[in-house]
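Incident log, structure service

09:12 report received: a user says their structure output differs between two submissions of the same chain.
09:20 pulled the input from the user's history:
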Amino acid sequence: MVLTVVFQPLIVPSIVIVLLFYVIPESTSVPKEARWSLLLLIMVTTLLIPMLSVIGMRMTTLIPSMHMITKRERIVPFSMVSLFYLITSCFFYFKLNVDSLLVYTLIVITACVMALTIISLFWRISAHMTGLAGLLAIIIVLGLKFTTISLLYPLIASVLLCGTVSSARLYLDAHKPSEVLGGFVLGFAVCFISLYYFLF
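09:34 re-ran on a clean worker, output below:
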């Protein structure tokens, strides 16, 4: 349970931006003095506000459980998270003068969340695996593009996270194996194909 709470899907955009700003600093043209404030903005809009909104939905009984066991329970929270991510991506694209890789990465993550929301109308795939597989795909593509920086440790960490979190979801009986695999395929395919196309 600790693994699934700590490594929830909402944390993925923040991890990706930390990678771009501090692990592969050559990937971005964002000035060093502006990175912390942009990271904080992304953490607030893609992690804190959506998380508090879902907690608020639970407290007002709009959703019966934080586990969102049925497909129907996912519709409102997932749609709301998609909206927050879309607003964040549009804000960065239209209002902020930051580099294209950062903006495009936010757009790709938003597309992944929106695809997950649409698929959740029909099939309850794992949001955890969608997020972590997307992170894995992004690390692989960045490693292929920026060869001067070794991303071996982030790659190993993301592979281990995918394995341990998927095992935890199965152990908790939160998903069937096909739902975990479906989430992995969605996150990896969307992020790998989109980012590879953009960078190469």
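09:41 both user submissions now match this output. Likely a transient worker issue. Closing.
09:42 reviewer note: The chain has a mean pLDDT of 92. DSSP finds eight helices and no strands in the chain.
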